[in-house]
Structures
1.
Amino acid sequence: MAKERVLEIRDLELHYFTRKGVVRAVDKISFDLRQSETLGVVGESGCGKTTMGTALLNMPTPPGRIVGGQILLDGRDVLKLSETEIRRRVRWETISMVFQGAMNCLTPVYTIKKQMKETLLQHREMTKQEMDARMKKYLNLVGLPDDVLRRYPHELSGGMKQRVVIAMALFLEPKVVICDEPTTALDVVVQAQVINLLKDLKDELNVSFIFITHDLSIEAEVSDRIMIMYAGRIAEIGTNEQIYG
């Protein structure tokens, strides 16, 4: 039996409005994502992979602007919601993102606990004990000990920082997580650990992933289907066997 669609993209367009003209960074793309599926997104630098990822959160980087299409999350069009509704009910609640370069996502002057706690305070009414339990649970889930909460980002290795960012993307229990090159700048051993972690989390939490990378060998390992992007469009989409065949 086919699994339900958790995300449907219909003719999504995002343009960058520059002094030299309009750049069609995402040009009328359409695809679906099913429950507990991993969709790999591959393409050369500048083809629109990361831009598409941020568009799904309705967070286009200026001077980018979504100019058309639909982003249907559980049948609800995200683009018709107000910014307040998106912040409260969509971002990190239903769909979240692991951004490229974990160190750039973590504030160096705050402990890991303070950064995780800020997100919880924005989205949940919880006691201090409940927040501590939630933070520890998800750190443990990604293979990190409780004492990481007391540390600053510079006290962690690259792989540990990446795991913290993955925990932060998961701990509000969203249905969809976008991973933007989560293994970039990690050595081969740590890359393998992060990939195995994501595969385990997909099975354990029943979450759907969009996995953006340049590395076709990684996509073959983690993805159920692969989407090839070129110049803001989808060149082809299919199973591993169809794409590699």
2.
Amino acid sequence: MADSIRVAVLGMAHDHLWTNLKQMSELDGAEIVAGADANSELREKFSKESGCDQTFADYEALLDEVEPDAVFGFCATADHADVVEMCAPRGIHVMVEKPMAATLEQADRMLVAAKTHDTRLMVNWPTAWSRSLRTAKRLVDEGVIGEIWQLTWRGGHSGPDELGCSEHFCGFLFDADLNGAGAFNDYGGYGASMCVWFLGTPSSVVGVAGRLLKRHLPVDDNGMMILRYPHAMCRLEMTWTEAVPHQPPHDVVIYGTEGTLVAGESVTVFTRSDKEGETVALDELPDGQSNGPEYFLGCLRNGAEPEGLPNADLSRDAQEIMEAGLLSAINGFTVSLPVEHHLFRDA
């Protein structure tokens, strides 16, 4: 690969794009060379934010003319699979914003395309760059709290509309086809990916979801999942209806046979010998892993697969948990994994 990695942006509706562009601008050895989106207003904002004037209304037109080395996909979640299937045959590596896809079938399409054409695929989970979560993982791996038997987590806020997300972002978040669901898919993947990271794939999932308060939306505003493992359980909560966002804090709580770990702004460990708890100094993030663009581009330079939460296989397994949870919520029964209905033709 050339000394300077040429990166294009496909899709600009996701509000996280603008933070990632800023992070990208602070890196050496990479440049934004073009961007594409059907919306002219977003193309204009992209040029202003990135300093790149080369924009296209059509994704394939950009790929054909510009031939970038890599792509950032910040389109609607359901369009991620199309982006990877366009890029992989051209040898173009892709980073998409979380979650991986809107459905398990789409996630599998992405993996198939990337593996078939030997290209890198990364899912940018903001949780991957959390020092407290990285510290918690190290402590768990070291056996500080013994064997995990439960993980609990809550994610969400007052809702994208009340938070002030853009009309473009809300436009796909509030669309069941483009987002896969509402709050359930917006936040379920965060918790599901953490469970896979700490415990692997569960044996079954129970999910519930509903539109409890935001009756002006066509999608769910709350959901929950219970993940069953042979010797552990996880409880995940997803919401768009908190009157006071993040109060109490949405800390990750991990229960082990020898103690309990709470990871939020800080990490506190309670053990049988220290019931009052000890606050642990947070680990520094490894060099080259302070944010998504830095890590993705580093993987491309080193010819390495992304590891941990951004790994595509892990993210696909998180998608399977979300799919199982939605199937359970819709049908009212426990769903066993693996979920394989998408592998076969329609009846």
3.
Amino acid sequence: MPSVKLLLGTRYSALFTFMKYTLYTLFPNLITPWLSEALLAKAIERGLIEVDVRDLRNHAGNKHNRVDDTPYGGGAGMVIRVDVAAKAIAEVQAESTPDEIILLSPAGETFTQKIAEELAAKEHLLFLCGRYEGFDARVEKLVTRELSVGDYVLMGGEIAALTILEATARLLPGVLGDAKSHQQDSFTTGLLDYPEYTRPLEFEDEKVPDILLSGHHANIEIWRRQEALRRTLERRPELLARLELSKQDKKLLQEIREQRVKDEGDQKL
């Protein structure tokens, strides 16, 4: 199967930061529909990103297009051959040099927002999406890094690759409608994001907080920061240990903790 290259509207690309993604997979049709909708489709149409989806079977080297074989030493499942991966990588390198060659693997470094920001500064990312029991271990020496999207096992690397693609592409200038919208995202600031509200003003006896209706922007910013700290303390307290908190943050956290102690005391009465 030929590669599927999604690149339209290239006249726009000179106006913005440009990123190229190359994805090798055994199932290109799992990936291409994801790229035909929403903001990724618009980014492709405007020439902000190029996504080149290629079939690993093109490098099988046999009439049956078999890319896998049984593992040495026995065991369940099949393993994707190292020579197939090597040919795939060499094909891309003959055209241009990827900044990163990324193997999606449960054994890889856990993908984070910090890594997303690092990768978003690159120009060309190449992904190897595995299936079955994964790639021959010798593939690890052919890549620049291994990444995992979490401590669980997927059926293949396609969803993981798309996760990284989305997380990095949305950081590129012009991809999001509001250039500032990602700056307050969860994890970008080191905290979980503050809660957001819109219409209706009241739903099932729960109203939008009065502070958000006050029009006092300085107080709203303080409230949002406190709520971000509150959410992080309640849901992901380990994140706070990594942060260098300001005096105001410490003060807000102290107020949160004092309020929690008060609420717990009221419940016992």
4.
Amino acid sequence: MTPMDVLIVVERFFLYWLAYSFAGWVWETGLSVVLRKRFEDRGMLNGPICPIYGFGGLLVVVLLHDVNNPLSLFLSSGVLACTLEYASSWAIEKLYHMRFWDYSGKPFNINGRVCASNLLAFGVMGVFVVKVLKPFAFGLFAKIPPVWLDAISITLTTLLVADVAISAGVLTKIRGAAESVRADNTEAITKAVR
């Protein structure tokens, strides 16, 4: 495999990741519209993507591509995606001292980070990704000429890096403000108790 071939593979997987991330954002935002009756951007970034869905989609495609039994694919996808969701929730909480989702009120949850209903939804999504979306996306992106693939990848990477930098800055400011309020409240409570 030549360096050019490797670059094409990397660029295509980047586009797959973006496609799955965008599909996740559409799912999350659409679900919010249906359940809450209002538009609510459910992404962690400013752009219309949920990166966790991109990573989940790629993990399912890479690790479960040869699983042919639909039930095995369903269960494996659900467990894989819930493991990713749990690890992501834990990491975000440790990094930013906040939770972006909490399933404590749902049955069969684990520390409010994952729940049974999500395992079922992720299982269905995993089957859909492997059986429908992957063949479509792989076929579509394979038709993009290398020069266009380079241009699209560079443009989208630039936009993504800018979005991540801006979003991380905002989250860091929110974390700092929350810690400041927490420190002020602790000081006020300590003075009131004395």
